[in-house]
C-alpha cells in the first residue's frame, strides 16, 4: 500500500482572520492618510482655487465640481479597500475604511446640498419658455 502525502495546507485569505497587530498596522496609517488627504484637499485643492478665482463664479463652480469629483473618487477607493480588507478578514481595517467612507460620504452630501441650493432656479420660473 502506498502512503499518500496529505494535501498541502493552502492559505486562502478568508480562511483565517488577520492577526490583530498586522490589522492595526494597516488600519491606523490608512485612516490617518485618507483623513489627511480629505483635509488637505479641502484646504489646498478647493480653498486655494476659490481664493485664486478672485470672485469669478465660473472658476469657483469649476473648483467645487472638481472637489466633489475627487471626494467621489476617494469614496470609491475607500470602499474597494474596505471590501478587500473584508476578504482578508481584517476587521479593524474594515472599520477604519468605513469610518472614512462615512466622512467622505457626509462631505459629498453636504457639498451636493450646497451646490443644489446655490444653483437652483428662482421659484417664479416654472416654464422653460419664461426666459428666466
Summarize the structure.
This protein has 132 residues and is mainly alpha-helical. The protein has helices at residues 20-53, 57-87, 91-118.
Main sheet record: none
Oligomer kind: single chain
Distance between the termini: 92 Å
Shape descriptor: elongated
Strand tally: 0
Task: Report the uncertain regions.
Answer: none
How much of the polypeptide forms β-strand, as a percent range?
Answer: under 5%
H/I helix tally: 3
pLDDT averaged residue by residue: 86
Percent helix range: over 70%
Q: Would you list the SSEs in sequence order as H and E?
A: HHH
Estimated radius of gyration: 23 Å
Structural class: mainly alpha
Give the SSE map.
Blueprint (H helix, E strand, L loop, with lengths): L19 H34 L3 H31 L3 H28 L14
Helix pairs in contact: 1-2, 1-3, 2-3
Structure description:
- It is a single chain.
- This protein has helices spanning 20-53, 57-87, 91-118.
- Helix 1 packs antiparallel against helix 2 (57-87), helix 1 (20-53) runs parallel beside helix 3 and helix 2 (57-87) packs antiparallel against helix 3 (91-118).
- The protein starts with 19 loop residues before the first helix and ends in a 14-residue tail after the last helix.
- The chain is elongated and about 90 Å long.
- By secondary structure, it is mostly helical.
Amino acid at each position: 500500500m502506498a502512503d499518500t502525502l496529505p494535501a498541502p495546507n493552502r492559505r486562502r485569505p478568508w480562511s483565517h482572520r488577520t492577526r490583530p497587530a498586522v490589522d492595526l498596522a494597516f488600519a491606523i496609517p490608512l485612516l490617518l492618510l485618507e483623513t489627511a488627504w480629505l483635509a488637505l484637499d479641502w484646504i489646498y485643492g478647493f480653498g486655494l482655487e476659490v481664493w485664486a478665482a478672485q470672485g469669478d463664479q465660473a472658476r469657483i463652480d469649476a473648483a467645487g465640481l472638481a472637489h466633489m469629483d475627487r471626494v467621489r473618487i476617494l469614496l470609491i477607493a475607500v470602499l474597494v479597500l474596505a471590501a478587500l480588507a473584508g476578504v482578508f478578514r481584517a476587521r479593524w481595517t474594515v472599520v477604519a475604511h468605513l469610518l472614512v467612507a462615512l466622512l467622505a460620504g457626509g462631505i459629498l452630501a453636504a457639498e451636493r446640498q450646497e451646490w443644489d441650493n446655490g444653483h437652483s432656479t428662482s421659484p417664479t420660473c416654472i416654464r422653460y419658455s419664461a426666459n428666466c
